[in-house]
């Protein structure tokens, strides 16, 4: 596989102030200025706010938690309450230039369906996720026999919103099954630095703590 360079409901965006979102700048760089953007699972609106400031996008958001929606509205962002698993089916084809799902794919009940809807709604889709194939995750699981807790997998197994964890290899295979094309891909190490783009896939899968992919529907399989 080759890569191109690069009760309130529970919060789905899995991060904390102690673990800043290193993927946001990468995502913002992938988005064209002035684009129509739908951010699914937009959390507190940090990405939408960044895209508005840096790229002047026409941004919309969908967020599961009422708290997240309230925070977004307080920032002047156009966000509604909704669920990636059920509400994306109601959006029309080609309604946006980009549909973004950042650090949320692993918290969806039907990730394949969510990704398929994203590729239908937008000309392009951007997905970021924690890599369960990362070497520290493998070491924790192998040596301790317990589910790993890392900077991007912050929760213990019994209270985590993450229900469909995957590796970079798993994700790339799913993209191929959907007949989509990987336009760009970036794997980030623990420090947030990109792994060189021409590294073999297993290097990305082993040393990438998280990954960001820019997808286009149709075209050749990755």
What this model shows, in words?
There is one protein chain. The chain is of the alpha/beta class. The protein has seven helices and seven strands; from the N terminus they run αβαβαββαβααβαβ. It has a seven-stranded mixed sheet with strand order 3-2-1-4-5-7-6, sandwiched between helices. Helix 2 links the parallel strand 1 and strand 2. The N terminus is likely disordered.
Overall mean pLDDT stands at 85
Spatial order of the strands forming the largest sheet: 3-2-1-4-5-7-6
Number of separate strands: 7
Beta-strand percentage? 15-25%
What portion of residues is helical?
Answer: 25-40%
Please give the radius of gyration in angstroms.
16 Å
SS-derived structural category: alpha/beta
Query: In terms of per-residue confidence, which ranges show pLDDT below 50 for 5 or more consecutive residues?
Result: 1-19
- Total helical elements: 7
Quote the distance from N terminus to C terminus. Answer: 7 Å
- How do the helices and strands follow one another from N- to C-terminus? HEHEHEEHEHHEHE
């Amino acid at each position: 596989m080759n890569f191109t360079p690069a009760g309130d409901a529970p919060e789905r965006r899995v991060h904390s102030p102690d673990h800043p979102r290193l993927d946001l700048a990468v995502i913002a760089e992938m988005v064209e200025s002035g684009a129509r953007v739908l951010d699914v699972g937009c959390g507190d609106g940090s990405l939408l706010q960044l895209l508005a400031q840096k790229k002047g996008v026409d941004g919309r958001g969908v967020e599961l938690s009422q708290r997240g929606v309230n925070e977004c509205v307080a920032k002047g962002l156009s966000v509604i309450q909704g669920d990636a698993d059920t509400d994306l089916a109601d959006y029309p084809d080609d309604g946006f230039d980009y549909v973004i799902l950042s650090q949320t794919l692993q918290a969806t009940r039907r990730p394949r369906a969510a990704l398929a809807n994203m590729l239908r709604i937008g000309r392009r889709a951007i997905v970021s996720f924690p890599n369960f194939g990362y070497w520290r995750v493998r070491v924790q699981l192998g040596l301790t026999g317990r589910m790993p807790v890392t900077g991007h997998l912050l929760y213990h197994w019994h209270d985590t919103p993450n229900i469909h964890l995957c590796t970079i290899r798993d994700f790339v295979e799913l993209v191929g099954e959907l007949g989509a094309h990987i336009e760009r891909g970036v794997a980030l190490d623990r420090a947030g630095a990109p792994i060189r783009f021409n590294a073999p896939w297993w290097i990305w899968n082993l040393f990438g703590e998280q990954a960001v992919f820019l997808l286009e529907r149709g075209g050749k399989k990755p």
